[in-house]
Structures are given as structure tokens and as C-alpha cells.
């Protein structure tokens, strides 16, 4: 209460000197207090969650666009000679089919590279002795919907009865479902972090009001309105949130860059396609601004509500 006369004299002399009034009413050092650090951690986690959700969205979009018109034809036959004959016949029919953009028989070298990690083939092994189907990579003009896939099966059945026709998108359906689930998880985490930020600001605002209750009562009797008192608290909260937001953004960007480099080292096409674009980074940079606005609005509403009950 030793600073109370100075507060009263300052507010009575000139209410326009709001910054001075704020420093007298809220003497706690902002950067050394816990609020900027708490908000910084919240913003950092939100940045990482948002970046992860955006990267997953980009990955799903790129993969979906890449396989939307893709069809794989497998010629599954135990006799290598008959398998090769049906593969050549199917290749000829598919090359004359309307709506087919490109068709390619996958070379034996590529098949050997595909099965080597699973079957352990080595130089000198007779791959023809292994039950490896012949593969035809097919690209349609447009999406490979079930009706078009069934039409391809009907055209191939007379010349290649051992052919199995599958849309590539159907193979990746579980992957797309998992990516969608992870996106929902990232969104839920962002919502929880926003709720935690609101709860933290509420507790800090009510604690500050309780510590300065006597001062606030006297200032209020001198003519200060609830809005003027709330403005002091929300300005202090804005400074704390801005300091924490900048630190949290730098921390989140650093973690995001580290994770991105780790996934890029995998050399996967899907991981490369999941990189963040300019608009994604702009969205991430707006997170601290949203955090500051959320903290200021929460502080204002909580202080006004508490003042109505207090005074």
C-alpha cells in the first residue's frame, strides 16, 4: 500500500497518463514474470501443431492428385511364358482404349528392385522362378472411378484373364484416412492450447485484481470507470502476450524446421510434397497475433466481469 498515494495523485492529476498509471498499478516486471513464458510455450506448441496439420494437408493433396488417375494392372500367372504373353496382349488393348493417357509395362529391373527388400533377390537369381506378377502402369485422363476401372477389366478379360485391375487410390485409402485422423488430432490440439491460454489469462487477471483490490477500490471511488481500469490490465497483458508470442513463434519455427529436415532426409516423394508454402508460413506467422488478441480480449472480459461483482 506504500505506492497508493502516488497512484491516487497520478490518476487524480491526469488520467491521460495511462502508461504511468499502469506501471504504478501493476508494478510486477512482465518479462521476469511467468505469464510471457507460459504464453510462449502455448504459442510454440500451437505453431508446431499448425505446421504439422498444414504439412499433412499438403501431403494428402499432392498424393491424391498424383494417384487420382492411376491404375495398376497385374498379370498374375504361375507360368512365366503365359504371364508375359498376357502382359503384351493387355498392353496392346490398353494402348487403344479411349481415355487412357499413358500406359507402360514396368521393366523387369524395376520389379527386381521392388521385391529385393522383401524376397532378398541377388545377382544371378532366376527371378522368373518367383511368383512375381507382371505390372502395367496406366494413367487415365481424369479420375479412376469404379465404373472406369470395371470397364477396363471387361476389356482385358478376353485377352488377359489373369489380369487384376486396381485403382491406385484404393491402395492409399488407409493412408489418406490416417492423414485425415492426424489432421483432426492437430486441430484438436490447437483448440486445447487455445482453451489453456484462455484459462491461464483468466487466472492471471483474477490474481492481479485480488492483489490490487484495495487500490482499485480507491481509484474507482475517484471516478475511474470499469473500462479504464480494464484497459490498464489488458495493456499489460498485451505486452506479456506479445513477448511470449515472439519467443514461442521462434521456438515453434525452429522445431518445425528441424522436423522438416528429418522427414526430408527420408527421400520419400510424399514427404517432399508435404512441404510448407508461402501461404502456410504466413498463416503460422499470424499465430502470435491471434494469441495476443485472444489474451487481450480474455483479460478485458474477465476484468470487467470481476469488477462488476467486486464494486
From TrEMBL:
Keywords: Cell membrane, Membrane, Transmembrane, Transmembrane helix. GO terms for cellular component: cell division site; plasma membrane. The keyword DNA repair does not apply. The chain crosses the membrane at residues 181-204, 241-261, 281-307. InterPro entries: ABC3_permease_C (IPR003838), FtsX (IPR004513). It is found in: Cell membrane. Residues 189-308 form the ABC3 transporter permease C-terminal domain. This is ABC3 transporter permease C-terminal domain-containing protein. It comes from the Bacteria. It is a multi-pass membrane protein. One of its GO terms (biological process) is cell division.
